[in-house]
Known about the structure:
The structure is a homotetramer.
Chain A: E1 6-16, H1 19-29, E2 33-37, E3 43-46, E4 56-60, E5 65-73, H2 76-88, E6 93-96, E7 107-111, E8 117-121, E9 151-159, H3 162-172, E10 176-182, E11 191-197, E12 205-209, E13 215-222, H4 226-238, E14 243-249, E15 256-261, E16 267-272, E17 284-286, H5 291-295, H6 304-308
Parallel strand pairs in A: 1-4, 5-8, 9-12, 10-17, 13-16
Antiparallel strand pairs in A: 1-5, 2-3, 3-4, 6-7, 7-8, 9-13, 10-11, 11-12, 14-15, 15-16
Amino acid sequence: MAMTGVLRPGHAQLRVLDLEKSITFYRDILGLVETGRDDRGRVYFKCWDERDHSSLILSPSDSAGIDFIGFKVLDAATLDQLERDVRAFGIATERVPAGDLLETGERVRFRLPSGHLFELYAEKTKVGNGLPSVNPPPWSMDADRGMAPIRFDHCLLYGPNVQANKDLFLKVLGFHLVERILGPTEAGEPEIGIFLSCSHKTHDIAFVEYEEPGKLHHLSFRMPTWERVLRAGDIMGMNRVPIDIGPTRHGVTRGETIYAWDPSGNRFETFAGGYEPYPDGDPITWTFEGFPHGLDYPQGKLHESFMTVVT
Amino acid sequence: MAMTGVLRPGHAQLRVLDLEKSITFYRDILGLVETGRDDRGRVYFKCWDERDHSSLILSPSDSAGIDFIGFKVLDAATLDQLERDVRAFGIATERVPAGDLLETGERVRFRLPSGHLFELYAEKTKVGNGLPSVNPPPWSMDADRGMAPIRFDHCLLYGPNVQANKDLFLKVLGFHLVERILGPTEAGEPEIGIFLSCSHKTHDIAFVEYEEPGKLHHLSFRMPTWERVLRAGDIMGMNRVPIDIGPTRHGVTRGETIYAWDPSGNRFETFAGGYEPYPDGDPITWTFEGFPHGLDYPQGKLHESFMTVVT
Amino acid sequence: MAMTGVLRPGHAQLRVLDLEKSITFYRDILGLVETGRDDRGRVYFKCWDERDHSSLILSPSDSAGIDFIGFKVLDAATLDQLERDVRAFGIATERVPAGDLLETGERVRFRLPSGHLFELYAEKTKVGNGLPSVNPPPWSMDADRGMAPIRFDHCLLYGPNVQANKDLFLKVLGFHLVERILGPTEAGEPEIGIFLSCSHKTHDIAFVEYEEPGKLHHLSFRMPTWERVLRAGDIMGMNRVPIDIGPTRHGVTRGETIYAWDPSGNRFETFAGGYEPYPDGDPITWTFEGFPHGLDYPQGKLHESFMTVVT
Amino acid sequence: MAMTGVLRPGHAQLRVLDLEKSITFYRDILGLVETGRDDRGRVYFKCWDERDHSSLILSPSDSAGIDFIGFKVLDAATLDQLERDVRAFGIATERVPAGDLLETGERVRFRLPSGHLFELYAEKTKVGNGLPSVNPPPWSMDADRGMAPIRFDHCLLYGPNVQANKDLFLKVLGFHLVERILGPTEAGEPEIGIFLSCSHKTHDIAFVEYEEPGKLHHLSFRMPTWERVLRAGDIMGMNRVPIDIGPTRHGVTRGETIYAWDPSGNRFETFAGGYEPYPDGDPITWTFEGFPHGLDYPQGKLHESFMTVVT
């Protein structure tokens, strides 16, 4: 948790085309827990082992993609301070009232240089993970319902101005750079991909340079083990969920992963593994030539759909 | 072990183009144990947990592919009986003298309807798995050398006359049909792929209908677990071994697998899992339409290189 | 599958004290599938991935223990031949009529020198594993219900005359000796434990020398992986199933295992792993001094309850 | 990483009785990397995937146990601030000069209410994990040398005044309480065990109430998976390392673990798993009656040696 008080990715609002199909997909196939619906037609989900009310909000729309991503911060004082710091950095912020999102307090919202709507909030109702807080078992029946990821882990966002994002996240929000991907040598090797952490996870958010602003590459959900990643892949096969790549391992972050698409064409990831990078570490660099193994370490292939398809 | 006394796949002789590169690959990268060299330039290997002298023989050549595959049988009497039975079936056999292959007894050799040279033998020197036979530990240092498969498991061979092969293996050699793949409906759904077992493994040998005789699709090596399959994939990435498909799971046999190519372009497999089919079971059928999930259960894709490349 | 035509452990009838509690335990906690009840109050179960009607029969009784164990053989001709061979060996046999056990054909029954009732049969109705026989997925919802073992694997029986049992199984029934445990040096190192296989499993049945005849050490159920063994242990914890030993690994057979007791005090095992010994292999020996690591390879302890408690 | 700037457990100095035996144990059996020796006879080690120079220092002595544990903090300013805060809390501190420990900067040292010597430091030379920082593979040969833990994870310390420790760690050092164990109801249920985190690990340090001050229950080393925990157990068996408990799973923190003793009788742990508790979470409570499952979730037993043996 960053020294600034930013804790973790808290929630993402995802645009879906067919709400009923999407509910079935996220609840029964991915295996999230539905926790609410609001009067704007949005449906709220959490992963079984998360404690907060919701981490994924589905919003019916004509186009797929991500509406906004929100990170939880330590408390209201932290929220106020970060709001001041973001404004001082030159980015306008607005406050979204408590309750605008069910069970969630005020959100400080601003638009990243990459075009994405980003939020910070301090309050979200705790609903628990279904296990008692006294003498609990290590898991519940929910752990086998669908793919049953344990948490919403991060998202990878595509948009312009990756370097400006990096400045904001590192200097203002207190993230640290864990891994980065360089562009082609002939273009002077700019950083075209950055993996940022506010914790000792390999990334809490990531950005890749892309012409169009505000695009989603994937929302990522954490699985406990590589064996559970395979089980997720089996469930995708059983339900004809179209897979992009995997099972495989990324060189980048060492994650053991499968990427696939939800019914609206939004890409999601189910992954396990990684390592534990702290803020005092040195970032890992992937060159343009080395990146095929960064994407798919065993195969060393640049899978085209993975590189190009976004919502 | 088939009631006829056929025990298991015993050895395969593989043609390789660059002997030194191949030795380095099979010994250090795949992680087999070198057990001998003969005066015909052949190099002999076994998997670390196998007891017999060798299961893979590399033979230097101008063209890649498989020279022959041999199965071990219970004893000399069994060998004699099977020789009689194969001849009675209408297939000519010859005897290859003991010692022609290092540390191996006489081999009864014949050509399958698919064009492949097939052998049966009763004797091969036991060299052990490096562990004591009294109070042994469960593994040795060899278990971490390279990918370190535990045994040569089976091969999949491409050639014509799959049905004639099936007759021979089922009626004469005592195998049972575990799974089968049907051809296109419009072609009348012939059986174009068969997975045969002389044990309770999902297959000890498999054939796919193909115009050219005597072709090798892959030699398969067994890994203990899905985690070790990933480790094998990592080692392939580290050594730039070109991967065909995987990691993934087959619907056919449920195997958890990676396929890749050796330096000569011969395909090999490192796999785990499966199930235990006995001779009293009923075969599983994959239709032409269902086969994409049979090949890659999560992805449900017909990977073209997997379907077409053989040596 | 032994050259004699003996295929695998087929069924075991277990005496239970409280039928309702036992049904709940075997169906909901261990996670077997109930397949029938007969007019003698017996309840029939199979493991989810087994094809035959039943592999465990619970029989209400005043005392726990095993009534009989039955192995499936290839066909009626095999059954007849084995009946002749057992009689020729000097052991009286009787035929139990078809239907005496639900969905099961005639059984040839005889009493082993160790006092145990042993049966062979050729017919049992196939009910399938719940998956289609065309284009099946690799598992079903049943695979997560309770501990969900994939098959009834073997039992370990305690009784006198282990050497006489060994003669019968090796010479008449066609099993091979995979591992053996020696007694104390001062007693002349008799073989006090034997692990016998009619397949390439590490054991299909095992015997340990014991004064009282006809005792059950444990019934064993196979789990797909070490991770699923831990999950079974978690389920035992959740349900307060008393564990004897484990999770751990045996040196003997390398099995990764937990032993625990059912509500009647019958011991059962949930295990994964092992290796693939063929009839042409050489048995592994555990000396009396080495046996602590044979029992519990990491800990090297002779757990007293494991050694002494039987039903 | 706590908002105060405390990052992680950095190093522990352990007293060992036979230095040569201990070096062999920690280097070859546990599988740490030796990184230095100093003129006071101390030997320095790191886990293969750690970046800093050392995390375990062996100090030859007449008695086993722990000399001190040090945590890394963000920078020198953080070190100064924490020094002030600890003093303001009423605990005297001293500065140990840079270089007193090889490759380590100044340490702020103080004695905890439990009697343990505790340190904070900001600088330690980075030696890397043996992998390149550009296009790295996911692991190296070091990952298979011995048990090869990936990091020094935490220690559990026994001593009096657990509540005073809790105040210091929570109010001054910025840790959060993740799990706690209550004492007997008849004694008024005091908190006798506390698991504290300065990150989203289940614990970075833990304390249990005990009469004698300054005692070590165990040093803990992290393994990547449950399969690697079994491998560690196998290595313990091969090397006759005496195991205390395991393999098993704790209810407390859900960790999948084995505990054993080094040649001096210091207990160490090799574990995997857990979950990700953030500072905004609510602690889990284990009652005195519930603690058997907290210790060993499957078995639900209070293993006596685990409870009582300390150095």
